[in-house]
Amino acid sequence: MTPHQHLRILLERRVPGYSLEADFYHAQSILDIELKAVFEREWVLAGSSSEIPESGDYLTTMIGQTGIIVVHTEDGTLRAFQNSCRHRGSVICLESKGHANKLVCPYHQWTYALDGELLHAAEMPKNFDRDQYSLIAVNIELMAGMIYVCLANDPPDFSGFRREVEPYIAPHQPARCKVAFETSEIENANWKLVVENNRECYHCAGSHPELTYSLTAFAMPDDPRADTFFSELMPRKAKDWDKLGLPHVAVPGGQEFRCIRLPFINDALSMTLDGSLACRKLLGDFEDPDLGSVRMFRVPNNWNHFSSDYVLHATVNPISPDKTLLTTKWLVHEDAVEGWDYDVEHLTAVWKATNRQDATLAQNNHKGTRAAGYRTGPYAESEFMLVDFTNWYAAKMASYLTQQETSQIHLTSVSS
Ligand code: FES
Ligand SMILES: [Fe+2]
């Protein structure tokens, strides 16, 4: 049986509303297809424009196995390229961030302009045409300072996401931030289990004492499980935010993205251990610190929180079926002074603890799905975002298979 046939069988017998079969979490052949069907076709968060404010600044990231360079060019625009030399394919930029007037491959020093054009290649034959060897460009979209990139030749529409989400994000002005701290951690779990874990707060009460001091486990303003406290708090805060012109109602993101502003509990102003502000200098032009947080995610692998004082970006990238890289960045106002406006420990304590706890949960989940007796299990009502995620994922994989089969039929009929 080919990997495509195997996947087709798994997709056909999948029961919506249930967790995925073990092979989805453990088979290398499934991950190989996911890299093409999902990661090479979707918009992925690469970073924040505030990380590369000057001409020549660059950052690097990974989409699956493909390295990406995002560079701030001389004309002020941001461009993205595959981090792979056109000579023999070496990685060009080795650091996660840097500054360069030109991009020079460390192997044989082929040298590229910031717009990707090949400027110099020593010892090549006379008829060598440099114009044919520019860096491979990657689609890029900038939304309120958030840099999304997509490897597809024909990327999915970005405009609906931008239209719905930007009004929520823009007031926090992520472009006028700086990264105060970042972490990269490898979790011993399949990337989908890491994402699934992020999409529900069913586990929060049992696992996240630090996070649940400020964050409500209720995902919707009209959550039927909501207690009296939340039912009274939500409409009161909604009124305040209406006065400030800050949108808060959940956007119609379907299965692809979610964006909503929800209040903190316990009179918290920020996601910190005691609910106090993580940074005295508020983001953007905010004067009111009590803004709850905008929670935003988009498929396949990015989630974010925006409070009045800091921004948290998180992305996951699969390394292997059982290893996933989680990158987390904490951003504060660009003028905030460390030690005066913010303390890194206070800023990061909640999400560092939460990430640690989530890594253990995802690892346990991953291990448990290896059991001979593992059977797919039903999602709870509060896990509706997992239903969305797995449905979206299955549809994406199925449509890729269909496209491949169609092009195979086409190829066969052309050659016969
Ligand atoms: S691989 Fe880059 S210069 Fe040779
Ligand atoms: Fe969690």
Topology:
Elements (H helix, E strand, L loop, with lengths): L2 H11 L8 H5 L1 H12 L4 E5 L8 E7 L2 E7 L5 E5 L14 E3 L3 E2 L6 E2 L5 E3 L16 E7 L2 E5 L8 H11 L7 E11 L3 H8 L5 H4 L20 H17 L12 E6 L30 E6 L3 E5 L4 E10 L2 E11 L10 H25 L15 H32 L1
Antiparallel strand pairs: 1-10, 2-3, 2-5, 3-4, 4-9, 6-7, 7-8, 9-10, 11-16, 12-13, 13-14, 14-15, 15-16
Helix pairs in contact: 1-9, 3-9, 5-8
Name the strands of the widest sheet in spatial order: 1-10-9-4-3-2-5
Uncertain spans, ≥5 residues at pLDDT below 50?
none
CATH superfamily of the largest domain, by name, is Naphthalene 1,2-dioxygenase Alpha Subunit, Chain A, domain 1
Distinct small molecules: FE2/S2 (inorganic) cluster, fe (ii) ion
Topology as a string of helices (H) and strands (E): HHHEEEEEEEEEEHEHHHEEEEEHH
Task: Round the Cα radius of gyration to an integer and report it.
Answer: 23 Å
The strand count comes to 16
The rough form would be described as globular
Question: What's the architecture of the largest domain in CATH terms?
Answer: Alpha-Beta Complex
The count of domains is 2
Summarize this structure as a short list of keywords or feature phrases.
416 residues; alpha+beta; Rieske Iron-sulfur Protein; Naphthalene 1,2-dioxygenase Alpha Subunit, Chain A, domain 1; seven-stranded antiparallel sheet; six-stranded antiparallel sheet; 9 helices; 30% helix; binds fe (ii) ion
Quick structural overview:
This protein has helices at 3-13, 22-26, 28-39, 159-169, 191-198, 204-207, 228-244, 344-368, 384-415; strands at residues 44-48, 57-63, 66-72, 78-82, 97-99, 103-104, 111-112, 118-120, 137-143, 146-150, 177-187, 257-262, 293-298, 302-306, 311-320, 323-333. It has 9 helices and 16 strands.
